[in-house]
Amino acid sequence: MTFSPELEKRFAEMAAKYPEGRQKACLIPMLMYAQDEVGHMTEELKEEVAKRLNISVLEVNEVVGYYTMMRKKRMGKTHLQICTNISCLLWDGDQLWERACQKLGIGHNEVTADGKISLEEVECIGACSWAPAIQVNYDFQHHVTPEQLDKLIDDLRNA
What are the beta bridge partners of residue 136? Predict the structure, then answer.
């Protein structure tokens, strides 16, 4: 499997930062960057990363199985995560979740028919002090109001 020249360069730069035999430390960032390019964790992607790091596919699968941010199926171009854990719940995070489901017409780990947006209810995104919080791909948004969520979804649909 080959990746874009930009990703190949990034992988080479990452691997060069570690001494021989210690490149396994690159596993999670390599998987995340590869996932961003490919869309989800394909068998081919996992095999390629294992080969590059000289580890077994089983070791890669252990990491992919553990971390929820490793996608086993293709998600939307934009992945919207809404926290409904206790801090966000106290600030109506559950209402944001319901609103997003209704507005998008999808539920947990589902993708809109056009493939633009996927939705995930998450337990915690580590932004309890700024509840309710959501994450759009890798960008956090804090103190989200229903009106802000509506605008965000409308903007994402029109992008």
Answer: 80, 139
Which pLDDT tens digit goes with each residue over 26-40? 999 999 999 999 989
Spell out the alpha helix ranges (H) of the chain.
5-16, 27-38, 43-53, 57-66, 86-90, 93-104, 146-158
Q: Which residues touch 30 (CB under 8 Å, ≥6 apart)?
A: 11, 14, 49, 52, 53
* Tens-digit pLDDT profile for residues 4-16: 999 999 999 998 8
Task: Note the pTM of the prediction, 2 decimals.
Answer: 0.81
**Number of neighbouring beta carbons within 10 Å of residue 5:** 8
* SS3 of residue 1 by DSSP: coil
Catalogue all structural domains in the chain, each as residue range(s) with its CATH number.
Answer: 5-66 (1.10.10), 78-158 (3.40.30.10)
CA distances from 38 to 4, 65, 115 (A): 10, 18, 14
Phi first, then psi, for residue 149 (nearest 5°) are -65, -45
Please, what's the largest Cα pairwise distance for the chain? 52
Measure the CA angle with vertex 112, ends 106 and 116; round to 5°: 140
Compute CA 153 distance to the chain's CA centroid, rounded to the nearest angstrom: 17
